From TrEMBL:
Kinase is among the record's keywords: no
UniProt main location, coarse: Golgi
GO terms for MF: hexosyltransferase activity
Compartments, record wording: Golgi apparatus membrane
Membrane topology, record value: Single-pass type II membrane protein
Name this polypeptide is given: Hexosyltransferase
Entry's family note: Belongs to the glycosyltransferase 31 family.
GO cellular component, one term: Golgi membrane
InterPro entries, per the entry: Glyco_trans_31 (IPR002659), Nucleotide-diphossugar_trans (IPR029044)
PANTHER family listed in its UniProt record: BETA-1,3-N-ACETYLGLUCOSAMINYLTRANSFERASE (PTHR11214)
Length: 332
C-alpha cells in the first residue's frame, strides 16, 4: 500500500499544526532586534489578501543522500512551528475546505522529483499526464510532500519548465501568487521570506510579469537571470514559460550547453512585455554554500542562521566578473 496521498485524494484529513508566534521559535535577541529595525512598510495587499508562494524544492531519487537532504530540510526550515508554512497537500486541503478561518498557510512547499524514467523526454511537451501517481514510483518517499513529474531526470534540460507548468496549473486552481524554484541544498529563512512577501510582493492580480532572484548573467544570451539556488516568478510568467512556450520553443532558446537557471531567464525575458525584475542580492534571505552540500551541513547552517542573515553584499551585480573592461577600469 502506498504511504503517499499527494494531490490524489479528495479527503486529505491532516489538521493544521498548532500555531505559535515567531518569537516562540527562539529566534534570538539579535535577530529580533534586526527585524524591529527594518523599515515597517504598508503591505502590498489587494482586498486584504495575503501574498502566497509555492516553493518547489528540487530533489531526486537517484541516491540515498538526496533523501537524507529532504529529511534534513523537513527538520529545519520546513519544519518550523508556524502555520504559514505547510505541505502543498495541506494547502490544497485548506482551500478545498473553503473556511477562511482555517486557511492559514501562505507558503506551501513540495519536493520536485522527475519520475518518468529513460523512456520519457527531459521536457514535458506531449499529451501524457504531467505527474505520475506516487504508487507507480519505485522508492517512493513516504512523507506525502513530493510530486513526481512525468519526465526523465535532468537538472539542466527541462525539469524547471515542467515544474513551472505544474505550478501554474495548481496556482490558478488554488490561488497561489508566486512560484519559486529552490535547490535542495538551499536553506530559506522562513521569517525573512515572509517579511519579503509581505513588504515587496503584491498578490494577484497586481503581480504581473514579476521575476527575481540573486542575480547572474550570461554572455551567450546577453541577459541576466535569477540563479538556481532560489528564484521565483509570478504565476502569469510561470504559465507563459510552461504553457505558452512549447517544449520546441524552449529547446530552440536554450544555451548550446543547457544551463538550468540561465535558460529559465532566457524564457522569461522572451516575453514581449516588460519584466519587473527583483534583485534579491540586496535582501538575501537564503543560504546556499559549500557547507550546505555536506553531510549534516544543513543542520549546522540552520543552527546559526539568525546570526548571519539577512545579508547585503557589496556587489549587487557581477559586473567585474562578467566584463573584463569593467574589472580593468576598477583596478585603475
Amino acid at each position: 500500500m502506498s504511504c503517499s496521498l499527494l494531490l490524489y485524494s479528495d479527503h486529505m484529513t491532516k489538521s493544521i499544526h498548532q500555531a505559535y508566534p515567531p518569537a516562540a521559535r527562539k529566534l534570538g535577541r539579535a535577530f529580533e532586534k534586526k527585524m524591529k529595525e527594518m523599515i515597517i512598510e504598508e503591505p502590498l495587499s489587494y482586498n486584504d489578501k495575503d501574498t502566497t508562494m509555492l516553493l518547489g524544492i528540487f530533489s531526486t531519487n537517484i541516491a540515498d543522500r538526496f533523501r537524507d537532504r529532504r529529511d534534513a530540510l523537513r527538520k529545519t526550515y520546513l519544519g518550523v512551528d508556524d502555520p504559514r508554512f505547510c505541505k502543498l497537500n495541506e494547502y490544497i486541503r485548506q482551500k478545498e475546505e473553503n473556511n477562511p478561518a482555517n486557511s492559514r498557510c501562505l507558503v506551501p512547499y513540495t519536493f520536485v522529483i522527475a519520475g518518468g524514467g529513460y523512456s520519457r523526454p527531459f521536457d514535458h511537451g506531449d499529451d501524457t499526464p504531467l505527474t505520475i501517481h506516487p504508487n507507480d514510483i519505485e522508492n517512493e518517499d513516504c512523507e506525502d510532500d513530493c510530486i513526481y513529474l512525468n519526465i526523465r531526470e535532468s537538472m539542466q534540460r527541462g525539469k524547471s519548465a515542467t515544474f513551472f507548468k505544474f505550478g501554474a496549473e495548481v496556482a490558478k486552481r488554488y490561488g497561489i501568487d508566486y512560484i519559486a524554484k529552490v535547490d535542495d541544498d538551499t536553506i530559506v529563512h522562513p521569517d525573512l521570506l515572509l517579511r519579503f512577501m509581505h513588504d515587496d510582493l503584491p498578490p494577484t492580480p497586481l503581480n504581473v510579469r514579476m521575476y527575481g532572484g540573486n542575480t547572474w548573467a550570461t554572455r551567450e544570451k546577453q541577459i541576466f537571470y535569477g540563479v538556481g539556488p532560489f528564484y521565483f516568478m509570478s504565476i502569469d510568467l510561470a504559465d507563459y514559460v510552461g504553457n505558452q512556450l512549447s517544449s520546441e520553443d524552449r529547446l530552440a532558446m536554450s544555451h548550446h550547453n543547457p544551463i538550468e537557471d540561465a535558460d529559465m531567464g532566457v524564457f522569461v525575458f522572451s516575453h514581449e512585455r516588460p519584466i519587473k525584475y527583483i534583485n534579491l542580492a540586496s535582501f538575501k534571505f537564503f543560504i546556499h554554500s559549500r557547507t550546505t552540500k555536506r553531510d549534516n551541513g544543513i543542520e549546522l547552517v540552520w543552527s546559526t542562521i539568525n546570526r548571519r542573515y539577512p545579508t547585503r553584499p557589496k556587489a549587487l551585480y557581477p559586473w567585474a566578473f562578467l566584463c573584463n573592461r569593467w574589472k580593468y577600469n576598477m583596478a585603475t
